[in-house]
Amino acid sequence: MRDNEFGAFLRARREAITPAEVGLPTGPRRRTPGLRRAELATIAGISVEYLTRLEQGRDRHPSPEVLGAIVDALRLSTEEREQLWLILGHDKPTALCPRVAEPPGQAVRPSVQAILDRLEPGPALVINRVGDVLACTGGYRRLAGPLGVLDTDPPNLLRYVFADDRARSAHPEWARIADGRANFLKHGFRSDDPHSAGLVAELTDAAGASFTSRFETPPAVLQRTGAERWVHPEVGELLLDFEIVELPDVDQRMIIYLPADEATSAALDRLDGRQPGALRAVSG
Fold this sequence. Notes:
alpha+beta; 5-stranded antiparallel β-sheet; 5 strands; 45% helix
């Protein structure tokens, strides 16, 4: 880790939590913006002296038990755990993962489905932490269905990219797409989680080095926006911008695709049976 990233992260997160968030009384004479060191140490069950050493960078290698206690006390979100993982390095401590390996969700909340309904006829989908497609718009079905993305039960983005030969024709920049899919799985992977471990074993068997060479490299920051080139059997090549939105309280993400140029906008309109110009290309 560079300099004292770990200590700076702990201090910043400690100062961002209010006493009320952890059930402590709020007094008028508090001079610290968040929790005092003594308060966090008490909640985590460690000494103030040791927490001070961690924040000051005099100790940068807490045990998994201590790290787990601090992570729980700080109430880190999934995104914050990912950030801390990157700071600590490639070997993801179990403490940065949820304590119980819950099965990946297979349903979306009604409010999330309502958002998808509002996004019609644009292509959009919701996936869980192993890449299963849980719900999607009709626009996404018209885009991805003819390419074979939705053929498995449940449809899975990683299984399609690495185990379906059609993916290489559908994605002219297949290698870049594969890099992103493998990185996504690394961020949700736990060796003691049979759900993600099972998918890794399946893809290792089906795709060999094209998967393992990517999965075994250190994780990178998740890409949450960008562009993808697709080739559709009915309307030809498409350039699609995407935005990825983390859904609160569930380990799910919504991916929204938008036409990146006028040709793609017109092509999506044709797929949807709409007049040209209904789906406008992103500009700027």
